[in-house]
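Reopening this ticket.

The earlier resolution said the output was attached, but the attachment link was broken on my side. Pasting everything inline this time so it's all in one place.
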Amino acid sequence: MEDLILSTASDVKHLAYAIDTFYFLICGALVMWMAAGFSMLEAGLVRSKNTTEILTKNIALFAIACTMYLICGYYIMYSSAEGGIFPSFGGLIGGENSVTDVLSGDEDAPYYSMRSDYFFQVVFVATCMSIVSGAVAERMKLWAFLAFAVVMTGFIYPVSGYWTWGEGFLDAAGYSDFAGSGIVHMAGAAAALAGVLVLGPRKGKYGKDGQINAIPGANLPLATLGTFILWMGWFGFNGGSELKMSDVDSANNVAQVFVNTNAAAAGGVIAALILARLWFKKADLTMALNGALAGLVAITAEPLEPSALTATIIGAIGGIIVVASIVTLDKLKIDDPVGAISVHGVVGIFGVLVVPFTNADATFGSQILGIVAIFAWVFIASLIVWTILKAIMGVRVSEEDEYDGVDLAECGMEAYPEFVSAKK
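Inline output:
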């Protein structure tokens, strides 16, 4: 009888380990699908002559992020990983859990595969880098951007990631960021802001006497599709950050996170659309799309503790903030074609600051410390890298190439060749 009980307990642990590992991997795949969302959103919000290049950036940055995080980023961020920076082949992300470890009965016994943890983390790195690509669109050299991606994903992001999720000093200080409003989104926006300041605005965006000239995107259906893809992928982003679902409490938590994530996005859309109607006298689709993303960013720092109605309100405030931020940055002549700095940076800060209202374990002091430390590190490090790249290889295409479109200049092909008149 005792052997049967032991066997049953062992089987339960095997099953729980398999379920949690599988859940981690599926959530990672959902977050990976956000790369498609960013690609479609950005391709829709840039002009047609810059579409191929923005798509090239997105698929290339994803590949670079995966490679750099494998080589060194994961080890920097989680320095307890086995094997060191240059271990034997196959050991770059540490050893795998053994059956003995899983069945040990210890409180800290692993309950999901190490490889699933790496996979889930690497798609977060790519998400952070994707934020940068839209903000610097339509005037940055492709290879300068990719060179920055190497440093950002291999070093800059992992360092601040170590401070937080890697049990560094911000974690010790009590900084709370469930899925990364600050760690991922604000960090990406800080890097983007540094790049935009080095680049300068697109030609024709700003005129004399404070005039702001709208530069409409080429494909709003594509941008809308991208937003829906991101909305869906965010369930993996936030839901997977629960890290477990093989017991009743964890499963209930995952469900709550999904509900709150969805509610916040909905609140962001409604609030942004209403504010746009009141402010601009029109129902601005681009503001509604950014409102959805703002709601998602706002709830990401704490999607578990709020009620669904509270999550809706948090998302709605995020939707209001993003509209005001986009208008303000334009007045400051900070040219961000897709609104990434506002969505991920300004609203990311709000998302981190609102955590103590629903999570009693968080304090405003620790949240502010996290914001300042992460933003300062990523912004300053990125500014240095962008400046070095500008001196070595240049970061901005020529005025002629910008006028003709970076598709031809950087990629030698057009996304919509049938719509372009043949050149004589």
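Reporter confirms the inline version is readable. Residues 81-91 have pLDDT under 50 and may be disordered. The CA atoms of residues 298 and 350 lie 6 Å apart.
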